[in-house]
Amino acid sequence: MMKLFKTIGAFTLFLIAFSCEQDVQTGQPLDDSPIFRDLPVAAGGRAANGRASDYKLEVYTAEYITSGESDQVGRIVYFNNVGNKQLGADFVPGFSLDETDNVSYYIDENRPSADISVQKSSAAITRAMNTWDAVNCSQLGITQKPYASSIPTGFVAAILGLSGSFNYVADVLHAGWLPAGFFNAIAPNGSTYILGVTFTIIFTDDAGNPTDIDNNGKLDVAWREIYYNDFFPWADGARFDIETVALHEAGHGLSQGHFGSAFRNSGNNKLHFSPRAVMNAAYSGVQTSIGETDNAGHCSNWASWPQN
């Protein structure tokens, strides 16, 4: 076991990495050990309102999508060993760090892809967010916060010493492209098959216990942040398509989990999904529209917002 300590200001962060066998069916560690644990960072003084300013923050999960050619299928990594191993965290109506129930997002252009201009990558991500916003069962008020080069972002990046920030920026943060080594910290050799990953940052109380302020049986999300793997050759409208992966990761950003069963065709050795959907756990080509199953998953969570 490797244990690293990092002190920033008055806060000490703990990064704990475990090496363990995984169940090939579920992808869960057999010894149920989290990769990261105990990452308390006080949010006091950073909140835009008094309602959230007394809470601390902690990394809870990471959902990632894999390349279709690999033998890996995207899964959820649990950093805080609580809950029932389902995607059990969501935003809280009336309890926001920016004092609104609208869902905001931000695109950090300080970490660009090596393969495509920031103008094209940002436009692709914006299209993905607009696609989710257009789902007619929900009224989320998805709003883009303007990019500013002076704003550092990335709670997880900060933990790993990659010029991040512990400050809130938006509800869904597209934090940019990071080098392959970052993804090896998420899963063994993850740099070679993880295309993108979405981290969920939750509120905790002073004792480090996750909160459930609205008593809906789900932990309370402070924000989510998305990172893309610069190991892969990214493209706009072709493999590996930024909009497709951004649409998938933004689905996680909006509390959706993976969907569909996967199998590999014995004839052509290609990975297939039943059904094919944006929220499949592996990339299966360009897919920029919301299908029936993706729509149902989204609506089941957001149709009554902000009452849920």
Provide a descriptive summary of the structure in words.
By secondary structure, the protein is of the alpha/beta class. Helix content is 16%, strand content 24%. Strands 3, 4, 5, 6, 7, 8, 9, 10 and 11 form a nine-stranded mixed beta sheet that branches. Strands 1-2 form a two-stranded antiparallel ribbon. A two-stranded antiparallel ribbon has the order 12-13. Strand 12 (261-264) and strand 13 (271-274) form a beta hairpin. The protein is globular. The relative contact order is 0.18.
Number of beta strands: 13
Shape: globular
Helical stretch tally: 5
Q: Structural class from helices and strands? A: alpha/beta
Helix content: 10-25%
- Any idea what the radius of gyration is? 18 Å
Low-confidence runs (pLDDT<50, min 5 residues)? Answer: 1-53, 80-86
SSE order, one letter for each helix or strand: EEEEEEEHEHEHEEHEEH
Give a quick account of the main beta sheet: strands, pairing sense, barrel closure.
9 strands, mixed
Mean pLDDT: 77
User: How would you describe the oligomerization state of the chains in this entry?
Assistant: single chain
Which features would summarize this protein structure in a list?
single chain, about 300 residues, alpha/beta, 9-stranded mixed sheet, two-stranded antiparallel ribbon, 5 helices, 13 strands, about 25% strand, disordered N terminus
